[in-house]
């Protein structure tokens, strides 16, 4: 049914050669052909749901309903990128006609378009075995850009990875994709060798800070450095204003608990800190104490993740500035939520330790004394995927808080929770370091394709050698900017 | 008239503090205000031309006509970015309305826009004392993005740098820019300290490969790495097809000589290699020998540049695979052109040494035996700012040659020369490493602004906290994508 993917450097060599050969063919495909590939993968995975979901359940401990939803999200994402490719706006096709009067000297005929960057190495994540794994967002956006993809399988779900890869390869072959468009590899050493190989032109990663930073450093250390897009998670602070706490404290407390325990706390957008007014802190604590007790334990993704969770949790709960409100348990049924608490002044004093992401069902409630302290804690963050504000529209601190937070996070959430990451045009899933290594990009949403495109200009070139996107008669019918004027 | 800019770390600290403070004010400016700043700088520099050009002549040895043209280019560039800011397409404003039926789960109201990345450190170049220096393209594009700029002056033209900086600061103050929007610093140690400082959020550089790579490595080594956009020049190969050589060999030879000696060969787009059919090589050599003799010597930018030129030239002309056709001289009048030659098989054998950029008036003529060898040499390049083809439209190898070269260069030039870099929407001045450290970006043309923008999404947020670009009534009147539909 599935064979073992390359995990030796010899086998890797042939994978990378095939990827390079595919690269040269993919860049000449028409948008309709690329879209057909993406939709073919989506159809194939949808049709295999009854096989894939149980495999994912067995290897990830995630419930069936969640996995069915995640598979649907994954195939929708592939199709959305197919639509994007056919629309063609991502090519940013731009034409400037010759202009002898141009102020910087006679302007030649210049035409600029985005071309694929070349073979992309994708590091799959464990917590979304479909949406951020073999056929997930990085793969979909790289294929949409016209790049071959080599996926490094996450060891958390090896059988699902292999089976998904076989289905992707089959779907690509059926859609007429060049051989070598997609490959799966396994093993850390193989992946490191691939990342250092000149045939790989960009890397994408979703996972821990330690892993992401080590791979980013490796990509930058190459004789020919390449872009490396690592999404490394964050603490995702949430802030409750005084007025919101007074009016809707209990509702906010329940929403917070739902969000930080969703998926057993294994979301990179989990709210790891909730800042509440000190005078309301005890009310929040009482509500949460009553609610946490009702939550049952659930298994984490795999023993490695659970082990890492307990390690980080131990250092958090053992911290002298931290009070433990609810001590989660760890039994055969799984892990139950932990709730910790501290004050804003303690947070400010110990923010280095308290800003560590703890991947799992734990969060820290932090009481702040006044607006000045609220702003001071908000200013302590440097790079977050998300920041959340619960407040009232006419409340004084809200605008300032947004002003502080929008410099520090990729997505600002108002009166909601950050754990749902919609796949749309307007999604931003990224942020300044340490949330990611690439603050100018997103890894979710259609703009994710931009990571894998490089611009090329053609000067005075004949129609026959121009990419179709740049030819006079616009055979692809795509939006272009011509002599400064944008045409939709 | 001008004071000495900060060159101590104490003074730097205050520069960076002011830049950070300015950053928070700049991001709330309206486009018209930012455009007024850019146009104010342009007007001020234009008005000071009679003072600045002689200063530049004295410090760069470049002729008056060239410097007047370069100043005009620089101020045009500032105004073009002003126009871009007012148009607003670079903000990529995107709105997705709430949609309960969205396939990945009920979609919230999501709105995405590009915000400034924060204070930018610009390393000025020596060879364009206006266009790639204090008020050059990096500064203009960073200001257009809404970022404060700290320029590290190039030591090649200290007085011009200081005077330009004083004029820029004055123009900014008059245009109402926040204090700290712009600053000049001097000295390598100061610049290194700035690059490592957390208040600097991106860096841009134009210069040598050694300098660019060292600074890129430093930027990546930070506890919080930042994007570093280094444009490090390249060899810019030019290829002459058999038919073009037969029909227009002498004309091409003269154009080549004009291009590689333009500005005493001190352009990052200088054609450093010309590949010609072997059977035409002697004709090319004869034409060039006659023409080179007519060219007079001219002074290089400064003694450091001339010294580096002679060092690199010595290793090239002393290479066993290289023949010296014309030995340039170096006298009090300056440096006269050198012309070297080799064969394609020698080039393939020694490409590591022959692919080194030699900044100055030298180029290498390379004879190739047939189309197969032509393609093989083209494939040897990995990252070039430009690649040039002289050919006939209906000639067989042209399409394949473009296919090979467009994967390796940022700009492809047909039947022309790469040394003119027009400032337009469709310009791409960049390329894969080693031409730059950022293959997905350009440092010339309006797209250069993208380097200094980071996307942020707002989820379900009240109108009052949204950037104007995202408000319902589109008060800026900018192009946006709303529910997937692009509105110009």
Automatic annotation (TrEMBL), chains A, B:
The domain of life for this entry's organism is Bacteria
Q: What is the lineage of its organism?
A: Bacteria, Bacillati, Actinomycetota, Actinomycetes, Actinopolysporales
List GO molecular-function terms, semicolon-separated: oxidoreductase activity, acting on the aldehyde or oxo group of donors, NAD or NADP as acceptor
Aldehyde dehydrogenase domain residues are 4-431
Native source species: Actinopolyspora mortivallis
Protein's UniProt keywords contain Flavoprotein: no
Spell out the SUPFAM superfamilies in the cross-references: ALDH-like
Q: Name one Pfam family in it.
A: Aldedh
User: Keywords of this protein's UniProt record, alphabetized?
Assistant: Oxidoreductase
Protein's name according to its UniProt entry: Aldehyde dehydrogenase (NADP(+))
């Amino acid at each position: 049914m599935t064979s073992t993917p390359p995990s030796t450097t010899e086998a890797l060599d042939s994978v990378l050669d095939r990827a390079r050969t595919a690269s040269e063919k993919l860049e000449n495909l028409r948008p309709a052909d690329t879209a057909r590939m993406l939709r073919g993968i989506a159809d194939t995975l949808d049709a295999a749901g009854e096989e894939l979901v149980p495999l994912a359940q067995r290897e990830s401990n995630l419930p069936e309903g969640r996995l069915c939803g995640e598979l649907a999200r994954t195939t929708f994402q592939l199709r959305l990128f197919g639509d994007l490719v056919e629309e063609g706006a991502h090519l940013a096709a731009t034409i400037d006609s010759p202009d002898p009067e141009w102020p910087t000297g006679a302007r030649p005929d210049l035409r600029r378009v985005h071309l694929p960057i070349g073979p992309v190495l994708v590091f799959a994540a464990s917590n979304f075995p479909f949406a951020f794994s073999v056929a997930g967002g990085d793969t979909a956006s790289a294929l949409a850009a016209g790049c071959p993809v080599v996926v490094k399988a996450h060891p958390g779900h090896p059988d699902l990875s292999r089976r998904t890869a076989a289905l992707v390869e089959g779907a690509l072959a059926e859609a007429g994709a060049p051989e070598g468009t997609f490959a799966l590899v396994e093993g850390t050493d193989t992946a490191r060798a691939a990342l250092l190989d000149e045939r790989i032109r960009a890397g994408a990663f979703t996972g821990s800070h330690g892993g992401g930073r080590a791979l980013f450093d490796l990509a930058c250390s190459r004789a020919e450095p390449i872009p490396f897009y690592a999404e490394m998670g964050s603490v995702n602070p949430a802030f409750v204003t005084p007025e919101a706490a007074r009016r809707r404290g209990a509702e906010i407390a329940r929403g917070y608990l739902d969000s930080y325990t969703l998926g057993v706390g294994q979301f990179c957008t989990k709210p790891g800190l909730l800042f509440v007014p000190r005078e309301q802190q005890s009310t929040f604590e009482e509500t949460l104490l009553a609610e946490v007790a009702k939550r049952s334990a659930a298994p984490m993704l795999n023993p490695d993740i659970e082990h890492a969770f307990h390690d980080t949790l131990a250092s958090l709960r053992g911290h002298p500035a931290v009070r433990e409100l609810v001590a989660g348990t760890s039994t055969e049924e799984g892990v139950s939520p932990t709730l910790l608490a501290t004050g804003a002044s303690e947070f400010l004093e110990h923010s280095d330790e308290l800003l560590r992401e703890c991947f799992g069902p734990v969060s820290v409630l932090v009481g702040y004394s006044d607006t000045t302290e609220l702003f001071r804690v908000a200013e302590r963050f440097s790079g977050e995927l998300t920041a959340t504000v619960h407040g009232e529209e006419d409340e004084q601190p809200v605008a300032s808080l947004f002003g502080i937070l929008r410099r520090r996070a990729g997505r600002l959430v108002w009166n909601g929770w950050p754990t749902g990451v919609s796949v749309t045009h307007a999604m931003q899933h990224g942020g300044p370091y340490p949330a990611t290594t690439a603050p100018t990009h997103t890894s979710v949403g259609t703009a994710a394709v931009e990571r894998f495109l490089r611009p090329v200009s053609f000067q005075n070139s004949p129609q026959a050698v121009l990419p179709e996107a740049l030819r006079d008669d616009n055979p692809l019918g795509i939006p272009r900017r011509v002599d400064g004027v944008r045409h939709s």
